[in-house]
Amino acid sequence: MIKVxxxxxxxxxxxxxxxxxxxxxxxxVTIVTSRELMGTKVSDRYANLRGHIDxxxxxxxxxxxxxxxxxxxxxxxxxxxxxVSELLDAGVRVIDLSADFRIKNIPLWExxxxxxxxxxxxxxxxxxxLPEINREAIKxxxxxxxxxxxPTAIQLGFLPLVENNLVQCNRLIADAKSGVSGAGRKxxxxxxxxxxxxxxxxxxxxxxxxxxxxxxxxxxxxxxEIKLTFVPHxxxxxxxxxxxxxxxVKNGVKVDVNELQDLYEKRYADEPFVDVLPQGQFPATRDVxxxxxxxxxxxxxxxxxxxxxxxxxxxxVKGASGQAIQNMNIMFGIDELTGxxxxxxxx
Amino acid sequence: MIKVxxxxxxxxxxxxxxxxxxxxxxxxVTIVTSRELMGTKVSDRYANLRGHIDxxxxxxxxxxxxxxxxxxxxxxxxxxxxxVSELLDAGVRVIDLSADFRIKNIPLWExxxxxxxxxxxxxxxxxxxLPEINREAIKxxxxxxxxxxxPTAIQLGFLPLVENNLVQCNRLIADAKSGVSGAGRKxxxxxxxxxxxxxxxxxxxxxxxxxxxxxxxxxxxxxxEIKLTFVPHxxxxxxxxxxxxxxxVKNGVKVDVNELQDLYEKRYADEPFVDVLPQGQFPATRDVxxxxxxxxxxxxxxxxxxxxxxxxxxxxVKGASGQAIQNMNIMFGIDELTGxxxxxxxx
Amino acid sequence: MIKVxxxxxxxxxxxxxxxxxxxxxxxxVTIVTSRELMGTKVSDRYANLRGHIDxxxxxxxxxxxxxxxxxxxxxxxxxxxxxVSELLDAGVRVIDLSADFRIKNIPLWExxxxxxxxxxxxxxxxxxxLPEINREAIKxxxxxxxxxxxPTAIQLGFLPLVENNLVQCNRLIADAKSGVSGAGRKxxxxxxxxxxxxxxxxxxxxxxxxxxxxxxxxxxxxxxEIKLTFVPHxxxxxxxxxxxxxxxVKNGVKVDVNELQDLYEKRYADEPFVDVLPQGQFPATRDVxxxxxxxxxxxxxxxxxxxxxxxxxxxxVKGASGQAIQNMNIMFGIDELTGxxxxxxxx
Amino acid sequence: MIKVxxxxxxxxxxxxxxxxxxxxxxxxVTIVTSRELMGTKVSDRYANLRGHIDxxxxxxxxxxxxxxxxxxxxxxxxxxxxxVSELLDAGVRVIDLSADFRIKNIPLWExxxxxxxxxxxxxxxxxxxLPEINREAIKxxxxxxxxxxxPTAIQLGFLPLVENNLVQCNRLIADAKSGVSGAGRKxxxxxxxxxxxxxxxxxxxxxxxxxxxxxxxxxxxxxxEIKLTFVPHxxxxxxxxxxxxxxxVKNGVKVDVNELQDLYEKRYADEPFVDVLPQGQFPATRDVxxxxxxxxxxxxxxxxxxxxxxxxxxxxVKGASGQAIQNMNIMFGIDELTGxxxxxxxx
Lengths: 347, 347, 347, 347
Description:
The structure is a homotetramer of 347-residue chains. In chain A, strand 1 (2-7), helix 1 and strand 2 form a beta-alpha-beta unit. Chain A folds into two domains: 2-125, NAD(P)-binding Rossmann-like Domain (Rossmann fold, 3-Layer(aba) Sandwich), CATH 3.40.50; 150-315, Dihydrodipicolinate Reductase, domain 2 (2-Layer Sandwich). Chain A contains twelve helices and 14 strands. By secondary structure, chain A is of the alpha/beta class. The first copy, chain A, has a seven-stranded parallel beta sheet with strand order 3-2-1-4-5-7-6. Chain A has a seven-stranded mixed beta sheet with strand order 9-10-8-11-14-13-12.
């Protein structure tokens, strides 16, 4: 029985961890913390958990947390870095869903997150928890930085192209569409139903924090330096990210659509949560809602010599809590699919 | 291993049966029929089933179906009645999600469904599959008529009042709000996104087929004849029914809110899928989305001496396929919660 | 040219006043106040007004406001009552969209709005601005209390029944469904898209502030005391209220559906903004989105001897700003339709 | 008084023409045709028109149509081409909202629309009705081909770049997001609320009919041949198109953001319906819902040397019926804003 603690489980990634962990027989959630909601029943905040989770929110007591086998941080950025070392010292393995340990380049992180990093020494040891590139390292990791939602969809889409040096890496484009849950459960005017339904808009055009994360990670697999135009869009739906990726083909490379399809299918053949669609089929975010799958389709425009990749995921599952649990499964030597094989609602 | 066949699994109740049955180890879906989609992979019609169901739609071959332990009809009305007897004769237990066997009064059925009933002899034997009133009979039933979506939410809400003779049964009101999935997956103009989102309207004011079903069933528990004003509303969402029920208190009855709460809690204390909310909490359909739970709250308006009940369910789960499987679990002596304990997505 | 001031135009009723007034040639909006947004261009807060309104928000300077012919208060409750008398003294006519002057019974108002009324003397003089009952008084009024959104739809629906003494006034039921814009543009968690879309729920079951307003006003037309069960529901859409009204027929009254239809058609024959639908047609909120019309249909359930009325309006137009302008038109002797004859978007 | 006929006004562009024309004093709609709905009141099909349009659908009688000053075709493709010449011969000016006369290259048209063009002779004379490029020709035109919805948003976005030879025209990308109304009011499963809400997906990846239209028209302004990657997405909302455009900067061209902003502002300074947003502001489709405006923002990614343009319109207004009426205004020498200056609903 794996003892699990969750720090800061008042937002959507927190409740999603609980939704996915509660039904499991091999996992016991022993503590769920929130300073703000201390004493409140978790199921009073999240009615979907009525009858499934019988815990109250408690203060983040390090003595209790220190007895867990693994602790998830579902906190805002710049929180985890303050207390992770204490847990690691107590022998607890840590899975951080926030951005604190995602970027190796500390000054870059500090520039984007506008705060000093208080645990730079841990950053180097942290494993970037994208199983499709780091499975081996995850197995033995003590500290996982779970990738951001956009970075997951976008990297999984670009990886086969970058790894095989097929495209002009300095002119990649990621046009990404995210549901509103990406903004979290914060009372912000822009995300009221009245403000965000029945409309679509781009945002973050002056720079989005997921940009450096994507580039730094993809650079590990690229001959040339990754340069990316990344435009996220707020889409009038609760969940889901669809990333439409455009990559100009490298001079001299000749694209054959069947080979391209093959390349993707082979790259992800052993990946339980990456589903390369048959040629001519394209993903819709609803197909992966609530599921840990990332659906990918690849196609080619001969007219412009551009490869187009479509990558769809549930931003709260494969883009956050599902991926965090996938990491946990790998770390504890459990079948990776455990607890993550649920089927999306349709419709 | 229970061998399951599903007839007519091209609509939403069909895919929902598959979503709920596919992950089970004690059930094997052996045949999924559709004349129209014969030869198509089920997962090509329902992308959420990719990787979970590897069947193709086939013709409704009675020889194959006859080898099943249980067959679900997820067909339109007036289909099941034509072939059920054949399956029963073959020793197959049948769970009909359509209306063919819901109403005992054959002329009444024929009037509402505007067709002759071709298997009136089976109607008497069919068990109305609302476990909260018929659990014992369901255990040994060979033919189950799964209640309609509105009738489930409305009956569960009214039952404690009717059984205890607290209200004027001839002036009950059910103001029900249903998501658009209640209309099925039919290409009908009215249910286009462009026609049905961002708007609410009443419909069926001249009479809805669930009306006689509700009254006939509630009458079994009522001293006085049930008379009901039933107004369904098309609500701009995919799933969910919220029934707001109004019952004028019987002359001479004095209502105490705590006793009322108690009455409901006791009535459903042993029901795994009826969740009476604590006083002062009220259901939202999203809390039960994808789940087999029916959430109920009861309150009282002293000003008008009227009891108000709120009853929320997922129309495709407790209102259809989940309830069908609950019946199956009971029929086969399996723990009733099996395969039905999933947690709703939030948000 | 009517000089108009708007106090507190940062919310949805404020921007709706501007949307409706900006295109008019007979009206000039001279000041739009907001302490919070002082100096901000109105069109920066409401992009739909770009190119239509060239004002900035300013402080509520009574000297400037005092030169207006009419001032609208689009403020939260308990604001207008503090400054209205100053404007009236300056000869300005005032149209208050908040609740401050809606209820004649001061203690009742204070009980529901949980604050002391600082201008009780003005309440008696204020005219309740529902033109369908108070047109004559509105013509000469200096202070208008614009009815609430629910009260408008509900009263227009019940009025013909109450005026003609046809129903049991002590057991009226109003099951009302409102879009989320009724909650205003406030950053509140419950009204985030993620929390309120794809779900419906009742609220305010312990009492809603529009309840006493409805009863007090309807009582003016009723032989017996009005008693009302009022259950509002939060519906997953931006705009619109649908009130489904249930009225048990009075003992001894015999209902003829054609006469009932006639009664409604005659009652509203001269009302430019009440549209009684032909028998058998029923309103949808989208049909009146953005329009000042209230659509009404009436029908009868013989089984339960209950009259059912459906009343649909746009909560921000006939339920607020449109009705406010209708009042202004009447007060200034302008054709009532002026500026209010826009056609709803479809779809 | 301009006499107007509308052929095929049963879909969304038809009702939108009526919404925009009905309130005008200088226009009289004399005939609205539909073979299918002959004899039905137009306002029975479109409840928003109740009280505004008192016509019935009639058969497309060429004698009546021939007496109109202008006839709009709001028909599916390959209908108008059969009867336009008859109207032109009768001296009627024709505005075709379908694709029949949009593409000058007849074989290209026939390839994409998979039918023989029966009036190739008229194609050369037809004026492509994008006022921002063809205003002079529109003034005297007898036959207008109203541009498609995507082509309008995309061309207006790219034009200043193409005209000034700033970008690599052979690698343009248009990632476009459209509301579901773009699919029309056809009973098609994919566009049911249950199938299309709460999800986003790309479509038309094998080729979309608006592709050749965009390229042919832009080529008139380009030094190099236009080559375009065009990926449309079905977005869960009723109305609106947001086109996110990516253009790699030409070698040797140095981009200055202020000059770029200037370029756009000057290009559209005299255009009443193109609104270039101030630097740092970005369009949302809701800002133009129901309005004839196209909102454009331009920005630049130095990292990838790519210009990004955001172009938002209402697909049924500036993308169809509003633009058609803008053409009519120009043709008849009326102020271009007439009847098109409505303000979007907010929220």
